[in-house]
Amino acid sequence: MSRKPSTLKFFSTGVNQFSSRSATASYSLLFLCRLRVNWKREDCVCLTWGLGQYKLLVSFSPFKLEISCDGEEIVTLNPENKLYFETLQDPTRYQEQYMILLFHTHSKTHLEISVGMDLSLHGFNHTYGLPEHADTLVLKDTRYVTEAYRLYNLDVFGYDINSRLGLYGSVPFLLAHKLERTAGVFWLNASETLVDVKYNPEPNKDEPPGKKSKISPQTDVRWISESGTIDCFILLGPTAAQVFSQYAQLTGYQALPPLFSLGYHQCRWNYEDEADVKAVDAGFDLHGIPYDVIWLDIEHTNGKRYFTWDSELFPNPGELQHHLQKKNRKLVVISDPHIKIDPDWPLYCEVKEGGHFVKNREGAVYEGTCWPGESCYLDFSSSKTRSWYARQFSLSKYEGSTESLFVWNDMNEPSVFNGPEQTMPKDAVHHGGWEHRELHNLYGFYQHMATFEGLLTRSGGTERPFILSRSFFAGSQRLGAIWTGDNVATWEYLKISIPMLLSLSLTGIQFCGADVGGFVQDPDPELLVRWYQAGALQPFFRGHSAKMTKRREPWLFGDDVTSAIRSAVQDRYRLLPYWYTLFHQAHTSALPPIRPLWVEFPNDTSMFAVENQYMIGGALLVCPVTDPEVTEVKVLLPGSDVLWYDTNTAAVHKGARTLDLPVTLNTVPVFQRGGTVVPRRAGCGSSTADLQQHPFTLTVALDSKGNADGLLYLDDGHSFSYRDQMQFCLRRFTMRAGRLVNSCADDQGSFVSDDKVESVVILGLNSLKRKPKLKSRVKRPKVSFCGNYEWNISCVSNVVLDINQKVVSH
Hints:
Keywords: Glycosidase, Hydrolase. The chain contains 13 helices and 48 strands. It is an alpha+beta fold. A hairpin with a 2-residue loop joins β6 and β7.
């Protein structure tokens, strides 16, 4: 790990059980750098690190930590002396009861177990993170809402909007941003956690952007967890990119997904049989809509027995997968964590005999109700159980599976239909005697981990797995994709999906998406189109719907709707080289592929709360249409010194303004930032495998000085050879003074690509003083040039540049 002066860890493990709430505890500090004692007294000590600009003042009684940089206070831990471990209490007070299901109670074997801590973030009045909640991007002041932010993984069907109640996953990571600094707080605790946020003073909405208030703002945050230890990391940035990297060093970087998984996924609960799957597959080809993956929900199994197939509906699953694979398409099947109680099912007997089930508090196997009826739940906290589960994905064990079959982990909060809050009781017992309350939020993460290991082992460690999980925790980004669960087909859910996905992206869960069209209820045609357009501009792109809804394949709503959806999906496929490059950056530097505007414009306070538009990488600003029957949308263009090019019209606009932009059903506002180069494919074919048949087009958007640059990352798209044999290619395209240079951005890569750049589109033609020309030692057909100075755009075509060849164009 880096020894940069960036991360402080505060760790406390024990408490004197005979003391008061502010009990004496054992505290430890961990730095990633060398500390020096600046001065000390009997009641405190001052430590410095880095070049001396960072200081930590440790006060002993009462205990307090104050962190500053160059005299500026950043964060104070325990400012109100609320750091505590719960002391011994009356056992009769600790039988938990639920208002909805009063017959559910939990015992507490260990009574003095809850922990808490408060901290103050100085100068900050905007905080983010703490997913998953269907709420605003900026965290709310919890004094003025009905509840604290709850981190407790639950199966919530058609969840409430604008709520702080916990949903399917939890990441106890909070970011704070102000002018010239971003910081983060990571509270590593997997038990039920409540977070209170208090802004002092409240932000002044009438204050001019960029003007500093005379009263220094402060955000007070209080963490309370039901169990565990205090294990808190303070990430000091100072930039957002540095905070992302510091957090990734602790929890892991986003896995580099296989290229096919960035294409479009078609899902429904449920496709009826093999003929239905083949008909849907053929429908995409017939209507010219590319897609890569079709999904099967629980009905494909034999009576909800996972790792099986319904022999009547899916008698030839291997042949079905081969049928799809011939078109370079994949199949995904669901695998939930519960196992049907069936003494005649060999797999159930094997699990029971192997001791792989969670136990109840009496020591018997815990039983609950889910899709198969009475079920038992795998204890993924045990490495032995995870290894057993991983083996079930081997081709020899999973009958009817092939290497083109991938996995969907659902219901893994875990969901228990007859359990308290529809989940597992907190006093259920896991491997090693751990109560479920201790690791509840880790349950789905552990299943995700076991599934990842299974698919990795299936290929001998050579192929990148793809697994979608509904439940997640900090670090789930290492394992695959996440989606926002059972949303509803209304405009409000389309709109809230944007801040939900931005919150996930800020906290490391960067391969994320929402069910296009809404899982519950039936969208009208306009809503469906707008959702496809939004989904095509988000990392994970899947259409999904419940079995009680009407069929909604893209061609079922008339020619106009089909055309609009086709256009959105095709645009997604053409842009995949850019998306794949962004995921390479996420994998290596933790930069999120989608990010709030404030990440790119950190010193513009008017960007700090924007949540209806965002950046895809550093080059594209998007504003999905999330209201019905609109013919015009307002688009905020940041940066007074930035030029923005409308990708639909090539019109150029200066930043630091709001546009009233006309839209039709076929258009969504997308702007390319001046100074950037975006790679696209010239065509899209029927799946991602067809992309290599189409050359690249570079869109060069010039800044006010006539400059631009951008990256393109390539590898084989599916294996780990980019990591193990350095089989990758990273190219940099740079425009300076009318010269476009294709150069190597990482000379460690040894991947040789046959890809070509066939055309270069230059936005900002008026910035060039002469007609573009190409110089190269390679013989090629005559290059053609066309330009329109009125529209400020030019196109150099028939270029035919080898990606691996260094070329300079004038």
